[in-house]
Amino acid sequence: MVEWTEEERAFIQEIFSKLKYEVVGPKSLCRALIVYPWTQRYFAHFGNLYNEDAIMGNPEVARHGVVVLHGLDAALKNMDNIKSNYAELSELHSEKLHVDPDNFKLMADCITVVIATQMRSSFTPAMQAAWYKFLSVVVSALSRQYH
Amino acid sequence: MVEWSDAERSAISGVWGKVNIDEIGPQTLGRLLIVYPWTQRYFGSFGDLSSAAAILGNPKVAAHGKVVLGALGKAVKDLDNIKATYSSLSQLHCEKLNVDPDNFRLLADCLTIVVAIKLGAAFSPQVQGTWQKLLAVVVAALSSRYF
Q: How far apart are CA A57 and CA B143, in angstroms?
């Protein structure tokens, strides 16, 4: 089971308390689609993803970015048992959506970069370490139902 | 050979122009040692790495961070010859320093975060995409003499 120090819990709480879902969610998904363009294959039904401006202006991308970011709420609410909260989402991504689990890490990286651009120097190294650990556990939980 | 568009060349020099090696180098290496603590094994001779504060205040970490980031400048100055530029550094890291090449990617990720913090919204998705392409080419060049 994953152990969290008091300091790590405080860092995670602080990040979420400053997190604007409707800003960070869309920016994170846009980054994934632009920086790792193969991920667009999962969103063919979103209409125009033809270039960076189209992606950044696409309302379905923005809406879905918020949905994806709220997916982290389950982990925040239950940090001592993150694994148990993602069984359904993991199955969905594996069996219905057929998402390569490598992409979870890419999405996590994009969320982290957006948070860094928003929080700037208050995203300290120690806070980054706690956040990286948090996202790694979520990514692992999302990958569990794949085999 | 890696192709660079004019827009990409311009984005890279735009980012590099804002990078102060004396500031960004130490922050990047500091984050690596804090966020991915196993990397401390390569720096046993640096003294106190026992906490985030110790790492961030350690003068040897700061000095070496500047060395590492200075070496990245070689890629920026000669984008069309990155592989040749890093040939001897690659051999050094493999044969003398015995560094697992996975760690180059981790350092690149830390640098991306530090740059994102520094540039904020100016680190747009397009700029991030180009910057990550540069770092991926450098990481590949550093890994090229391993086998």
A: 38
How many CB atoms are located within 10 Å of the residue A126 CB?
19
φ, ψ of residue A28 to 5 degrees: the values are -70, -45
Q: Which token pair is A52?
A: 């960076």
Count Cβ–Cβ pairs < 8 Å, chain A vs chain B.
59
Rounded to a whole number of angstroms, the distance from the CA of B28 to the nearest CA of chain A is: 9
Which residues in chain B show pLDDT less than 50?
none
> Best residue in A8, A102, A128, A133 to probe B by mutation, most B CBs within 10 Å?
A128
Give the pTM. 0.90
Q: Please judge whether A132 and B35 are an interchain contact, meaning their C-beta atoms are less than 8 angstroms apart.
A: yes
> How does residue A1 score in pLDDT terms, banded at 50, 70 and 90?
confident
Separation between Cα atoms, residue A138 and residue A2, nearest integer Å: 11
Both structure tokens of A18: 């400053």
Instruction: Tell me the residue ranges of DSSP E strands in A1-147.
Output: none
> Could you give the CA distance from residue B74 to residue B141 in angstroms, rounded to a whole number?
12
